[in-house]
Give the backbone structure.
Amino acid sequence: MFDRRLIQYFDWWLIGLTLMLGAVGFVLIYSAVNAGDVAIQKALYGKQIVWFAIGMTAMVCTFIFHYRFMDQWGGMIYFISIILLVFVLINGKFVSGSRRWLEIGPLTIQPSELVKISVILILSKYYSKRASIRGFTLKYLLIPMVIVFIPFLLIVKQPDLGTALLIVLIASSITVYVKIERKTMIWLIGSGAVLVSLAWFFLLKTYQKLRILTFLNPDRDPLGAGYHIIQSKIAIGSGMIFGKGFLKGTQNALSFLPEHHTDFILSVLAEEWGFAGTGIVLILYILLLGWGLNIAHGCRDTFGTILAVGVTAMLFWQVFINVGMVMGLMPVVGVPLPLISYGGSSVVTSLIGIGILMNISMRRFMVE
Amino acid sequence: MYFLFLSFTILMIRLFYLQIIEGEEYRRLSENNCIRLQSMDAPRGLVFDRNRNLLVDNSPSFDLSIVIRDAKPLEDTIGKLSKYMNTPKEELMNIVNSKKGLASYKPILLKSNIGRELLAAIEVHLFDLPGVIVEIKPQRYYIKNRSASHLLGYLGQISPDELKSGKYLSARQGDFIGKFGIEKSFQNYLSGKRGGRQVEVNAVGQVIRVLETVKAEPGHNIYLTVDYALQEKTESLLQGVAGAAVAMDPSTGQILALVSSPSFDQNNFITGISHEDWNSLITNPMRPMENKAIQGEYPPASTYKIVTAIAGLEERIVDQNTTYFCPGYYQFGNRVFGCWKKGGHGNVDIFKALAQSCDVYFYQVGEKLGVDRLAWYAKACGLGVPTGIDLDHEAEGLVPSSLWKKEKIGVPWQKGETLSIAIGQGYNLVTPLQMLSLTAAVANGGKLFRPVILQSMETVEGDIIKVPQQEQIGLIPVRKQTLDIVKRGLWEVVNTNGGTAWNAARVDGLNIAGKTGTAQVVSRKKEVGSGNRGKPENSFKSHAWFVSYAPADDPKIAVVVLVEHGEHGSSAAGPVAREMIKTFLGVAETEENNPVTKQLHQ
């Protein structure tokens, strides 16, 4: 039953890159929670170690079984994750104005993180059965739209606009990858633009528009998001070429940034390790993502290929949005930096994603 | 793959720009940590009376704070400060140490509202005192000390529960919010919206450049329906007694005065009230913290005969020609119910029954009505439910019925109890404000208005944003004929020799109508176990009521006065109401309504 080739084909590159990024994360979180005279969150460091261990276990569980089981169970996983989302809205933990967390015993989990994986699974399942060279027409795209729209709506309700949009981006990436028929593509883009402008002019109330404008341009809110961005830019810029050194960051030390161990962790990296350190980390990400696409390329069945692309897209968008946000290129949304930011659900989700990639990579010799 | 590289190229270019090209500038900015956020409090809305007299203002408070990060060396700076402040150094260090958990660039408040001399000393030596800042903050100031305190209310620090409730939108820990009175009712209008600014500071923490400012939005100004001259006069009339007096314009439901006595000093609450002060307020047997006009529940006593009269006339149990004989008591089964006048009233019709408050007449009306028909009319007159005024903690009173007694006490209704109810004793409980609504409704032809205290609300620029519509919440179920009879009876109370308020409330030329009431103190509700207020044990004197309106033929004002342990409605409450009416109508006559002055102005 057990195939020796599984070990022979074990993807050391993938696991190596993952562990390197994880290690960077530990160094930065250590820095973030220890710096300065605000001794509040030292416990977070230990928690992160526990979460990483849970994540690694989840990763191993994810690559032990053949990924065709994911094909079989995709619908069920999707269904469960939607139930969890509904549960969050009813019984979630209320933190600073939104319900995103579920308390299960000692753990607090964020179901919207897991939904990313389940949407990738079910879309891969759907598209792999119907892929053709000509591309999908509108008729076949209706079901994926519904699949994405349900969790999108539930997450917007929390409200967590960032994660909701992220899911749409991941789904769109997968859909573009499996090819859409050209006419359908034009039609979709056109009607999307019309819908958005209609909503803007007729549906949204003034205060909602203001909120969206502030979301897109944080400078409109100099006391909130705009202030965070300025502090983040100062932290990053002041790192210069080689940074101020480990535990020497001053912006970080004064806790100007409330989220410096989670979403704004990159500013800690850039301040203390400078352009050199940040550049290396970004290169590590490029290698990881490139490797993910390589795995997709090397896979010989449609489901696995689409799945690998989906997971890579998930990691890519999070890195791109987070780094862009911290440097003031993007709206301030609550998207953590995969494998590095503090946060249990985020780490576990990312490692499950890596586990999926590993699974596909290990079984590239098997021909269905 | 290309897309991947393209995206990361963009990120790299941005990183290069921030760290290499702009790096020097950002390094400089980070060295001082000099970009700070300063919060700017919004001035709270002001409060005026109906004649635009200012009642609640904001005065500037100079708050002395220290920013630990800039105050280097800290011990040294605190030492110097303690000299100027005349405060022991340890005390200041304690304050600083207790706030160590805060980020070090956030100002820690050492003393609010510092005096002129200290302010001058600190301004002069500011360069020797790194990290010390003086902020000017708007602080609440109640101009008329101890006056209208129950109506205006007071502020207090927001509690964790209130913060969590989500009702206070932009509030933060440590903010002061309205806790009582209109300060609470209109909190979200009065509070305004906090602003702030991003500033660049130098090494000693002084602002050298303002980067961005978000202006604070001042709260809205509130104009009350209250006539402050009347309010002030009423307060002086109730000086030294526990009680309440309320006045209303019967044609609109607008409150003209709302007094609860004794009052308290709201200015005490501004910087947080001390424990001793608070304790002495809440243990005071005269209950200064209670707004007796809306929270106090009392037996209505003979003022309730208005309701019994209306019910009797409407149910055709009596008419204006019905007379009963009053020998000074009424025999009911084997019990004897006395009239307050031992010698009896002789032959009594409805007018004389109201004017001289004959108990025996109303015992018989009540007996024929039964408790449940009487309760129906009482409820239709607005009793037993809160009036809906924009003030918190309004009591609902109690209108007893046979069903109520069965549910709450578990014993069937005794017929004899109906007799007590008919003269306003027994289980009945009302608030002075409920009696006022009822009195005003009798005066205006039957319309029950929701009592209104807000005349208008305006932005600082003077744009009117809210004018409450007068809101009729009910109509007393009476024919005009019935109302005319009751009104004539009430007029006779004051204006016929022998009427219970002939001596107490009559003013030549003002034409006051009213009804006295004297409520026995042993409250039955207490036996049921719901109300339990501290009460001086030696005081078993009756509560005194007077409900009234004037002028009787064209009512401009309705007044209800309740004096706790005042003994007789006529002697204790009547004169207060009379003086209030005199104050209000007297003024009105010379300024507006006097035909002579009107002609002169034209």
About this structure: Chain B touches chain A at residues 1, 4-5, 7-8, 10-12, 14-16, 18-20, 22-27, 29-31, 33, 35, 37, 69, 100-101, 103-105, 195-198, 211-214 (CB under 8 Å). DSSP finds 23 helices and 23 strands in chain B. Residues 36-224 of chain B form a domain with the Penicillin-binding protein 2a (Domain 2) fold (CATH 3.90.1310.10).
